[in-house]
Amino acid sequence: MNRVFSGIQPTGNIHIGNYLGALKQFAELQNDNECIYCIVDMHAITVPKDPKELNESILNVAALYIACGIDPDKSIVFVQSDVPGHAELGWILTCSSYTGELSRMTQFKQKSKEKESAPTGLFTYPVLMAADILLYDTSIVPVGDDQKQHIELTRDLAVRVNGKYGENTFVVPEGRYMKSGARVMSLDDPTNKMSKSAENEYSRISLLDSPAKIKKSVMRATTDSDGIIKFDVENKPGISNLLSIYSAFTGKTVESLEKDYAGSGYGDFKKDLVEVVNSSVKPIQDKYNDIRESDELKKILKEGAEKANAIAEKTIKRVKENFGLGIR
Ligand code: ATP
Ligand code: LTN
User: Fold this and answer.
1) Which pLDDT tens digit goes with each residue over 115-133?
2) Out of 115, 202, 238, 324, which could bridge 223 as a Cys pair, Cβ 3.0 to 4.6 Å?
3) Angle at CA 3, nearest 5°, toward 69 and 32?
């Protein structure tokens, strides 16, 4: 069995980009793999957070994991800061990373752009992500397209450390990206990715949005003026994004959607898309409401942390031995 690891930050509301790009595959992978899914709260504090809100968000994401089909009897679900190995390995890997390669990370460049001085954690963020992955001898990392550069860095670090400290130190992981949905774009500006942090709430559809909010977001989504339902990212990014979303939710190919909607207007297509999104998120919302306030949730996370810690401790022991750290 392959080991799978992925994480989501407990920041804001999880949107359909997070779902179609990452979360949807989490449940699909758990039948044939040994899956570990983490709520990466230590990544969330790279940008200052209100402690109470952060704590709520952790439980919100945990409940959404379960609502999206992750079965705690099959997969390990836990909170990053509950397993000390992440921070420990993070530091060890920081010492094997170069400031040059971290400066080239686009996420860092984007997130630090508007800031007068960027927090160091924002800079070393990808190293902590590498630690998350390497700590569990992970071979597959299901993520959205935007994480490709971080996955490459993780692989580079693993190969570099293995070359210097022993080939048994780390398993070199691979990213896994969805064929459709790996990059869901913003509804108001389809040249940017859908984001939790964008100011305009109608630029995204959150998994917990009401039917009315979903309708409004889809109906006002930016399209073009030629009214032809055709997939052409370069010239028609708006309608192409909506076609991708429709396709990712229903499993229908974009080509078959183009055929089905040949001659229809954007209005009709959007109305159908509203139905598709609403009926897809409804079961997730129902399950979320059942689990969010239950005592079960914290129990799942506590047991998950114990299981994760047992694996992490073994890796930390091996890494410390290979590096010559500590007393033996
Ligand atoms: P955001 O930019 O929306 O604030 P994020 O990308 O910084 O969120 P996470 O919440 O940790 O951070 O992302 C969780 C997962 O969702 C990652 O695997 C990421 O690649 C994926 N993801 C995020 N946005 C999109 C998107 N627009 N389309 C597809 N996948 C996405
Ligand atoms: N960097 C990711 C979140 C993340 C992650 C991970 C994803 C942190 N650690 C480990 C996969 C595996 C993001 O910003 N979306």
Assistant:
1) 888 999 999 999 999 999 9
2) 238
3) 55
